[in-house]
Amino acid sequence: MILMVVEIRIDRVSKWFGGIKALDNVSLEVSRGEVIGLIGPNGSGKTTLLNILRCLLKPDRGWVEISGVRLNGMDPERLADLGVASIYQFPRVIKDLTVAENVALAVLKRQKNLWRAELLAIEYLKDVGLGGKAHMLAAKLNRYEVRLMELARAMAMKPRVLLIDELLSGLSEEEQREIRGLVRSYLDSSGATAIWVEHAIGSLVREVDRLVVLNYGSLIADGEPEKVIRDQRVIEAYLGSYTIA
Known about the structure:
Layout: E1 6-17, E2 20-31, E3 35-39, H1 46-53, E4 61-66, E5 69-70, E6 84-87, H2 99-107, H3 114-127, H4 143-156, E7 161-165, H5 173-190, E8 193-197, E9 210-215, E10 218-223, H6 225-228, H7 232-239
């Protein structure tokens, strides 16, 4: 019998913004090495939940743990010490630094030699196909290339846990396909645990082990991706009342 170790635990989490309940008693466990897709319509609470895991928000009720450490009230800067890395929906790019220097800033969290950090950064950029643009100013990258740089920066932290927020947003189908392949390949080789948030209902079916769906702050489905996207509650959440033949 294989004992699954819980890497991320979310227990009865609720969050309000004024009179609006963004999350309503959400509970979720993610095993070590598992890749979870978190989807839902706009305003469903996906990013709110991710920001609680990032310690950017505190839950009004409930608690969250990563690697057995309770996060409520923790300084976000301490997450790197737990092996947590994030990819943000709106990338944090320092435009007057080179692409390699942007990635090297992440490497410096574990490698204090600047010269060595930049060499390592270039290797991660090669892994995502940006090696040839390592010494270009980050301001010159297009949207897709910025997303690749963000992925390289997260990989450079060698995370145990990766939190991804709408990495595919605004990209073409071909670009999305490339990004999905790179992320899945990295997660498979590293063994990292991940929660990957996207909006589109079918965007992560082949890339995740489980698909979790939020709607109006409540968890309405959790399971095998192909089954979840055919769940009547999920279809209604996205499209209104509709029946699959």
